[in-house]
Write a structure and sequence with these properties.
The protein contains seven helices and 26 strands. By secondary structure, it is an alpha/beta fold. The strands form seven sheets. It has a six-stranded mixed β-sheet with strand order 7-4-6-5-9-8. A six-stranded mixed β-sheet has the order 16-13-17-21-20-18, with helices on both faces. Helix 4 runs parallel beside helix 7 and helix 5 crosses helix 6. The protein folds into four domains: 162 residues, Molybdenum Cofactor Biosythetic Enzyme, Chain A, CATH 3.40.980.10; 49 residues, Alpha-Beta Complex (Molybdopterin biosynthesis moea protein, domain 2); 87 residues, Molybdopterin biosynthesis moeA protein, domain 3, CATH 2.170.190; 73 residues, MoeA, C-terminal, domain IV (Beta-clip, Beta Barrel), CATH 2.40.340.
């Protein structure tokens, strides 16, 4: 009996083990999932900081005056000076610490500087309130505050924050080594000129790109011919060597679909085989004795990419401890027909209507082998079996390609 998409997802997420944590140098941490928070090691900023070039002074003592003695220059990266004469000021550079007893910065554009004297330009005025041009100590965060929470997939700004608080090493989820295995005698390498009865390999290239973008450390590609003994020998080695295994093709019930029986002989526990979805009905999922997840996807390219987005990527995110991404919804621009007892995954283009609502225009492919039909689409909609979810205007789940 075929599982529903929801039931298949539940099983996959329940059986995929969490990835262990490891210490990672900051320079290699981009794209990894954080396992311990990044906290501020001191107040941010750590001192009252000048946000512009100008003259630092004490506003209350400067009110009513237009000329000020300059006691010196406070440059960025220098020890903080003090204001000796309450009616004077310090010339200051952006990023420099605010001299003691100063509370305001007059922009350099409003000043005429002549030697040790600063004058307000004609028409310029002093700031109305103290604090002008000053980035106050601790204004951004206090020491001990969590700046990047656990579960964050580290982007450039997260790396910058970690560097700013002295984290040269971060605790992250292990980035799994993944084997992507394409099966089929009809497949040839990309560089090969195919014979009329052959096609170039594309599934393993697409999956490798997808998994690398999702944070996997290594994604190695393999090709196995439709020879049962060869498949068993090579899969035995691959399953022992890699953390995750994703297979394409050879998983249905045809004469040369050897994967289900070979995986049984390799003691890979079959969690399910067959999901009430289109495309991707023959989808197979199991777990090895050492808890290596094995995803066996149908061989047609559209089914491969959709099953990977719908099941493999969420499982990888969960295993990594990544914070759950919010579910996206769109409105259908047109009705979609299909078998009433299957969930449909339909490629689509997304636009915004006059009310700023996101709308998906279905762009059905000719069949699940029509990889070229995905060009120009932004992702796919998920349409449950209930007919009401397939009418124009229905708000449905959206899965972007990127």
């Amino acid at each position: 009996m075929l599982l529903s998409v929801a039931a298949a997802e539940k099983i996959v997420l329940a059986r995929v083990p969490p990835l262990p944590g490891e210490d990672c140098p900051l320079k290699n941490a981009h794209g990894r999932v954080l396992r311990e928070p990044v906290v501020a090691d001191r107040d941010l900023p750590p001192f009252d900081r000048a946000m512009l070039d100008g003259l630092a002074l004490h506003l209350a003592n400067a009110t009513g005056r237009r000329q000020f003695a300059i006691e010196g220059i406070q440059a960025a990266g220098t020890i903080r000076h003090s204001l000796r004469d309450a009616a004077a000021g310090w010339q200051i550079a952006t990023g420099a610490p605010l001299p003691r007893d100063c509370d305001t910065i007059v922009p350099v554009e409003d000043l005429e500087l002549a030697g040790a004297v600063a004058r307000l330009r004609r028409g310029a005025r002093l700031p109305e309130h103290p604090g002008h041009g000053v980035h106050r100590c601790g204004q951004d965060a206090r020491a001990g505050a969590v700046l990047v929470p656990v579960g964050t997939r580290l982007g450039p700004h997260d790396i910058g924050i970690a560097a700013a608080v002295g984290r040269g090493t971060l605790r992250v989820a292990l980035a799994p080594r993944v084997a992507v295995v394409a099966t089929g005698d009809e497949l040839v390498d990309v560089e090969t000129r195919p014979a009329p009865h052959q096609i170039r390999r594309s599934n393993d290239h697409a999956l490798r790109a997808l998994l690398l973008a999702a944070g996997c450390a290594t994604v190695d590609r393999f090709h196995l011919r439709d020879l049962e003994q060869e498949i068993e020998t090579e899969l035995r080695r691959i399953i022992a060597e890699y953390d995750w295994v994703v297979l394409c093709g050879g998983v249905s019930k045809g004469r040369f679909d050897f994967l289900p029986v070979v995986l049984d002989r390799l003691r890979v526990e079959r969690c399910f085989h067959g999901v009430a979805q289109r495309p991707g009905k023959p989808f197979w999922f199991g777990v090895t004795p050492r808890q290596t997840p094995v995803f066996a996807l149908p061989g047609n390219p559209v089914a491969v990419l959709i099953c990977a987005h719908r099941f493999v990527l969420p499982a990888l995110a969960l295993a990594s401890g990544a914070a759950a991404a919010p579910e996206q919804r769109v409105a259908l621009a047109a009705a979609v027909a299909g078998p009433p007892d299957f969930t449909l995954f339909v490629p689509a283009r997304v636009t915004t209507d006059a009310t700023a609502r996101r709308v998906a225009q279905p762009a059905p492919v000719h069949n699940s082998g029509d990889f070229a039909g995905l060009a120009g689409t932004d992702g796919f909609v998920e349409l449950p079996p209930a007919p009401r979810w397939r009418r124009a205007g229905a708000v449905v789940r959206w899965h972007p390609w990127k």
